[in-house]
Design brief:
Number of domains: 2
CATH superfamily of the largest domain: Type I PLP-dependent aspartate aminotransferase-like (Major domain)
Bound molecules: ligand PLZ
Structural class: alpha/beta
Order of helices and strands: HEEEHHHEHEHEHEHEEEHHHEEHEEEH
Number of helices: 13
Helix content: 25-40%
Number of strands: 15
Length: 450
Amino acid sequence: MTAFPAGGPELPQRRNLVTEIPGPASRELTARRAGAVARGVSSVLPVYVTAAGGGVLVDADGNSLIDFGSGIAVTSVGNAAPRVASRVAAQAAAFTHTCFMVAPYEGYVEVCESLNRLTPGTHEKRSALFNSGAEAVENAIKIARYATGRSAVVAFDHAYHGRTNLTMALTAKNMPYKQGFGPFAAEIYRVPMAYPLRWPDGPDACRAEALGVVKSLIHAQVGESNVAAVIIEPIQGEGGFIVPPEGFLAGLAAFCADNGIVFIADEIQSGFCRTGDWFACSHEGVVPDLITTGKAIAGGLPLAGVTGRASLMDAVHPGGLGGTYGGNPVACAAALGAIETMSAEDLAGRARRIGDVMLPRLRKLAGHFPVIADVRGRGAMIAVELTHPGTLEPDAAATAAVASACHKAGLAVLTCGTFGNVLRFLPPLVIGEDLLEEGLGILEDAFGTL
Ligand code: PLZ
């Protein structure tokens, strides 16, 4: 077994490149991987990690990279965060698994109590725990269908909800998520997303028209009384960090309430302090009927949840929900450590501060580089969209080139977007401000190489 250096916040918080990226040890692992790992599973960064903490990733060659990805919005509390690592160690030493459906334990109950308390709305709630975001989304749909007795589900253009069969059907983008993997689940209907930059007549028209278009399409093509659920990411993640105009989510929630439709907010990427509040819905006071959570909930251990109105959640018969590992005790211990960290360190406030540092610098950058068509996001969920200057034609090549230049310079950034032309920034919320500024400097230099 390989010995790993210690990670966590004690790791020196600096970028330090001692080889080219990737270095020889990472290149050797890439060669080894080709003979062992299915090529359908790919990686963004060309380096192999041996330790991580705060805002840095350390690779097998001893390089320290700045982390602007948090493993796709997961390590918001920092990697190997002390409260997570210590609770995980204690739980792993006590017992690692019993299966909550066989012999239950307190940690599961406590995570559900936390979810019920922290998610939007003061109504009576219940929660259930699962292993992955996709599994949580699947279960939210199961619950909505059971509780309403209806089958249709409405999802949005640019949506991402997972890679299982039902969630592939909900996910909008074909490559790489769906190509060749059909047939897909039935009774999924897609409506346009309120995407200000790409709305036919621009952002003002988007604000004025989007909700009406969605409502009339549901009425004409599905029929309100057939719809079990409308599912939406309050800020879309994989689809391009798309922020709908103020009022769209609230209007959608009201439409659902008027028609007996379950309004599901998928906050798997946007939740747990990422956007500067516990949940993105809270910015507009939107209260979903069901909310799916995952990713940052457990500081890096696999855990996801569905939380919602007790009347919906408790509609399902005993035994109707579950799974061998759902709410595993070690993952629950991690979640309790992560939630404690978010509260104790006011990570929602940190996310707002990160946005306040990043947005002005990115807007300035957009002034210098007309390839940047849009700067958007909230809190520490920020992105820039790249197009051929003066047009809306996506520039995926420039996006990939900037990302690659960042990686070579020791900054881990991710891309996203239906058209592959969005650079997204999801730093750990505990990242130091020096590192944040340094990362932005690397990004600026990367645009200079275009
Ligand atoms: N809902 C809103 O963002 C996961 C996907 C990475 P799982 N997003 C990262 C990839 O390419 O597989 C996500 C999400 C939203 C659901 C999911 C699914 O969560 O934990 O990956 O299943």
